[in-house]
Amino acid sequence: MRELGARVVLAGRDFDAAKDAARAHAATHPGARFIEDGHEPAIAEGAGTIALELDRWPEPIDVALVPLGNGALLAGVGLWLKAHRPSTRVVGVCAAGAPAMAESWREGRPVAAGAADTIADGIAVRVPVPAALDDLRGVMDEVLLVDDAAIVAAMRLLFDALGIVVEPAGAVGVAAALAHEARFAGQLAATPLCGGNLTAEQVRRWLTAAAH
């Protein structure tokens, strides 16, 4: 982002604190616009192109396991699948240490959490976006939680078997398939591997350390 000319400011201790800082910045700088994942249709539309890729698979997909953070990724993928492949079940996957979106979907209303404690910082939502929850109604069939140990196991499997470096938030779909193997037995499951934002130290600790 800096290479493209943006001024990057690190703010807050987590995802939602950073959003609050960005919102405040936009409110005090004329001409600035706050863009919120989960509330911006264009972001969901872009994410929906992943469903087009899934549809190219030669066999019908029984279930799509989609990371669930603020909701744009799942809304985009889910809306397209429900319109074009309604038989495909759309399952959202949250980190167990950041269950706010899962609890909100189950309750049918926003349920904020006091903290988010997970290595999957890309989906570590404390304060759900109401508009995103509205978008998920009729799109998501189920939501599952996976803990950090399952996420690391999925990341290591992807690295060891495929040579792919995937960040924790992008590996939760594989983590769910591994943790709930019996639930998906005999089904063709698909999941996007989205994001490879790891530091060198995280790669060493989670992927290349001798003790697997």
Automatic annotation (TrEMBL):
Gene Ontology molecular function terms on file: L-serine ammonia-lyase activity; threonine deaminase activity
Record keywords: Lyase, Pyridoxal phosphate
InterPro entries cross-referenced by the UniProt entry: Ser/Thr_Dehydratase, TrpB-like_PALP, TrpB-like_PALP_sf
SUPFAM superfamilies the UniProt entry points to: Tryptophan synthase beta subunit-like PLP-dependent enzymes
EC numbers: 4.3.1.19
A biological process term (GO) from this entry: L-threonine catabolic process
Pfam families per UniProt: PALP
Organism domain of life: Bacteria
Tryptophan synthase beta chain-like PALP domain: residues covered: 1-189
Enzyme class: lyase
Cofactor: pyridoxal 5'-phosphate
Signal peptide: none
Keyword Phosphoprotein: no
Protein name, UniProt field: Threonine dehydratase
